[in-house]
């Protein structure tokens, strides 16, 4: 299991993939959180970068986190769905609504 945390660097994801290999479940902070601290640069993965991270990690399942509930998230679940569809990775994506559970 991989938890991205507050990371927007695909280089770091690639380094982890190189060391660990395929990941069963990736929990990706994918809301493109932005604040004025870094001139608006994302502090977490964008939706498109989350799809790239899923491919780099060869993740069997991907659960996007940090995509709703706070004003500094600039992308939400629909953005993630669209990015994964564009990357032809929808079969790996599991968007879990608040209060919902999932089995992998």
Characterise this structure:
By secondary structure, the protein is an alpha/beta fold. 31% of the residues lie in helices and 12% in strands. It has one domain. It is built from 3 helices and 3 strands; from the N terminus they run E-H-E-H-E-H. It has a 3-stranded parallel beta sheet with strand order 1-2-3, with helices on one face. Helix 2 (47-57) links the parallel strand 2 (25-29) and strand 3. Helix 2 crosses helix 3. The chain is globular. The mean pLDDT is 93.
Can you describe this structure in just a few lines?
With 104 residues, this protein is of the alpha/beta class. It has helices spanning 10-20, 47-57, 77-86, and strands at 2-3, 25-29, 61-65.
- Cα-based radius of gyration, to the nearest Å: 13 Å
How many separate structural domains?
A: 1
Give the neighbour order of strands across the main sheet.
Answer: 1-2-3
Low-confidence stretches: none
Q: Span between N and C termini?
A: 12 Å
- State the helical fraction: 25-40%
Described by strand count, sense and barrel closure, the largest sheet is: 3 strands, parallel
Q: Note the overall shape.
A: globular
Percent in strands:
5-15%
Mean of pLDDT: 93
Number of helices: 3
Topology record:
Layout: E1 2-3, H1 10-20, E2 25-29, H2 47-57, E3 61-65, H3 77-86
Parallel strand pairs: 1-2, 2-3
Helix pairs in contact: 1-2, 2-3
